[in-house]
Amino acid sequence: MINEQMYARGAESSVIREIFSYANERKAQIGTENVFDFSLGNPSVPAPDEVRRSIERSLTLPPEQVHGYTPAPGAPEVRSAVAASLNRRFNTSYTMADIFMTVGAAASVCCTLNAVACPGDEVIVIAPYFPEYRVWIEMAGATCVEVLANQETFQIDPAAVAAAITERTAAVIIDSPNNPTGAVYSRANIEALAAVLEDANAARAQRLGHPQPIVLISDEPYREITYGAEVPWVPSLYEHTVVCYSYSKSLSLPGERVGWVLVPQVSEGARRVMTAVAGAARSLGFVCAPALFQRVVMDCVDVPSDVAAYARNRELLTSALSKMGYTYVEPDGAFYLWVRALEPDAEAFCEKAKAYELLPVPSNSFGVEGWVRVGYCVAPEVIERSLPAWQRLADDYGVTQA
Ligand code: PLP
């Protein structure tokens, strides 16, 4: 016996991972320096020194304090440290009761989806979107409903969200700074979305006789990776917000698997959501977040992210590509450049790019046609060496230089 749904998930591979594997094969064949792999969102900036110092300090403690199970929601002192840090930054009054430590943002979103969506429900995503959302939504038995972002600004289109809401809408997932576009949703944009959700909630309460608010899942692994744009604190704009966070990008710890879910405990409904998040984490077998890295989080909770290297890469790449005649979305955050493919079929464009060992990700995997994602979380030399290849690719398509 086999679970065919799980088999299908295992047998299909993520396009991003496929390109990454292909890049490694090509590197072995023709040399690392000749392959321009822009596929994966693995931070190129090393984890800050404070992380190493925290680990070294922890290793002098009795092992059971470092390697033992923690309570399922996380070590109390860690959750308190996270809450205190948020309070300092966002003028809030959270406590450890609002925080549930997780195994990274993937687990944060998965647990939240399983907590708030029932089989048959619908969850809205803003396209283009992080491809795993569909997998996690369907795993929760819900349907993934794609709503296109504004195709000029890549901000949320509140009217389109309003049109997609049905009786079965359980949640909306937003991701800002955005993977894959690099857009940062403005305060006005999130306020407009919040107004749409409030209207839908009010109409629903009137029809059903009891409130069953739509949950806004704000997936924020890139919150700290910005180039000057304000990233509004979403729970201050919409009450029924669950924030999903991780240290994969901000502290460059993607392999260590640590993050949190924040459910502000402002109502009986919110307390029930938090209990359901705990139930989902239990049901999915997460047990607890890694104990050693919970301690790292406690020690490094206010350590700033080093975005200077990403800012330099962004400048290097955008100034060169714009001179070559490529068009792209000016990224305000994250470390991805969303570039228009030079033909409508992004997959065909990526095949052509392969001939020059250029490996971006076609937009089809993010739910839209005609674009590619270029991850610039790479060494600057990779970008510099790739520029002649981007030029030759543009020449192939007869693009005139700007
Ligand atoms: N959400 C988004 C938008 C991401 O880009 C990623 C990873 O790239 C994740 C969630 C998963 O992050 P984590 O490594 O913390 O599980």
Can you give a write-up of this model?
The chain has a 7-stranded mixed β-sheet, with helices on both faces. It has a 4-stranded antiparallel β-sheet with strand order 9-10-13-12. Strands 1-11 form a two-stranded parallel sheet. Helices cover 43% and strands 14% of the residues. The mean pLDDT is 96. β3, α7 and β4 form a beta-alpha-beta unit. The protein is of the alpha/beta class and 402 residues long. It is globular, with a radius of gyration of 21 Å. It contains 14 helices and 13 strands. It binds pyridoxal-5'-phosphate. Pyridoxal-5'-phosphate (PLP) binds next to α6. The site of pyridoxal-5'-phosphate has 13 residues, from α6.
Give me the Rg, rounded: 21 Å
Bound heterogens, unique: pyridoxal-5'-phosphate
What count of helical segments does DSSP give?
14
Helix-strand pattern:
HHEHHHEHEHEHEHEEEHHHEEHEEEH
Structural class of the secondary structure composition?
Answer: alpha/beta
Helix content: 40-55%
Determine the strand fraction and express it as a percent band.
5-15%
How many extended strands? 13
Shape: globular
Largest sheet: 7 strands, mixed
Distance between the termini: 59 Å
List keywords for this structure.
402 residues, binds pyridoxal-5'-phosphate, 14 helices, alpha/beta
Give a topology summary.
Blueprint: H1 4-11, H2 15-30, E1 36-37, H3 49-58, H4 63-67, H5 76-90, E2 99-102, H6 104-116, E3 122-127, H7 132-139, E4 143-148, H8 158-164, E5 169-175, H9 187-208, E6 215-219, E7 241-246, E8 259-262, H10 268-283, H11 291-300, H12 308-324, E9 328-329, E10 336-340, H13 346-354, E11 358-359, E12 361-362, E13 371-375, H14 380-396
Parallel strand pairs: 1-11, 3-4, 3-5, 5-6, 6-7
Antiparallel strand pairs: 2-8, 7-8, 9-10, 10-13, 12-13
Helix pairs in contact: 3-11, 5-11, 6-7, 6-10, 8-9, 12-14
The structure holds pyridoxal-5'-phosphate (PLP).
